[in-house]
């Protein structure tokens, strides 16, 4: 069988795996798999079976990350991490995150038990989206050692804290420090769908990520006064929902005026939430991204000022808090070069790009050189059940991964590296 036929078969199997994993869901008829939810356990079991068959020993660390270690040819060898996340947004597609984990597994399968001068650890991160606690990257933060008491105390919509969620899953939060990378970890690779239109528009199956845009996530609480919707005259109201609506359109206007800036009020809850009561309180989540940290932080200040002005003018009070603030992160130059070379060897052009979406690689980059390979996303649709991939593009990603492992094994690239303390 030719390399191309073989990688096409492997690509079909990888896509079937992603579709099977999409059935582990908290919701009927659509995919939602949040941090340490019950379906995450089923997802772990399934991937553990596949990893074991490929020759890796899998376990779940205390932050709920699934980790499968494929040993090196020799003891004391460095370790290359390859992975992505297993949690999803609500009403998700089958490939965001999951494809990166399945492709890491596929690369182990391609080795057919042959050992390399480095170990490979497949990581399925427990939480990247921020769907359950409003704060993303809980899984990858455990690997870089930045899970703190503040993070463990965050609560979900049912007032369950991160700490309790970990305990309820049968894990011990006191063990989280042991999930951190050890000195043998020398690099991180992440395959991920692009989730945007660029590779399709430029007719490139694969892309190489140079940098990942920074992001800020905040919660705003507009506090007005709940009252009867029929009897309260318009000029006597302190309507928190009307204030939030005015602010949301101001956010959209500002973002529209700056190419490259994206700002979104993604979620809003109005209380008391009755059909005939003026909303007394609105909680709204804001997400702001830009490749320039200066532009992003100026925009965030402008959004805070505009919320304050609108609240004050309408006689409301306002509280705001920053849930997550992450600067843009550059990928490792020499790994990017290796990825480019591997993409060229598949016959594709290595299109360089900045990722607008956040990825675990931006957290791992704090400790180890990190690089990302993007796959073309048909119609640029993601975070939606219509999200899809082309089998031929997945086959190219598998070939790219195989070339990359070959290059890294033969160039001594990883053997020379040391994990940053
Ligand atoms: C991850 O999907 C993100 O929000 O960028
Ligand atoms: Mn996502
Ligand atoms: Mn993702």
Overview of this structure, please?
The structure is a single chain. This protein has helices spanning 3-21, 38-54, 98-111, 138-144, 149-153, 162-168, 198-201, 240-256, 293-313, 333-345, 360-364, 391-411; strands spanning 57-60, 66-70, 79-85, 119-125, 185-193, 206-212, 214-223, 227-228, 262-271, 277-278, 281-290, 317-326, 329-330, 351-355, 370-375. With 421 residues, the protein is an alpha/beta fold. The strands form three sheets. Strands 1, 2, 3, 4, 5, 6, 13, 14 and 15 form a nine-stranded mixed sheet that branches. Strand 3, helix 3 and strand 4 form a beta-alpha-beta unit. Helix 1 crosses helix 3, helix 8 packs antiparallel against helix 9 and helix 10 (333-345) crosses helix 12. The mean pLDDT is 96. The structure holds glyoxylic acid and manganese (II) ion (2 copies). One manganese (II) ion (MN) binds next to loops.
Secondary-structure map:
Blueprint: H1 3-21, H2 38-54, E1 57-60, E2 66-70, E3 79-85, H3 98-111, E4 119-125, H4 138-144, H5 149-153, H6 162-168, E5 185-193, H7 198-201, E6 206-212, E7 214-223, E8 227-228, H8 240-256, E9 262-271, E10 277-278, E11 281-290, H9 293-313, E12 317-326, E13 329-330, H10 333-345, E14 351-355, H11 360-364, E15 370-375, H12 391-411
Parallel strand pairs: 3-4, 3-5, 5-15, 6-14
Antiparallel strand pairs: 1-2, 2-4, 6-13, 6-15, 7-11, 7-12, 8-10, 9-11
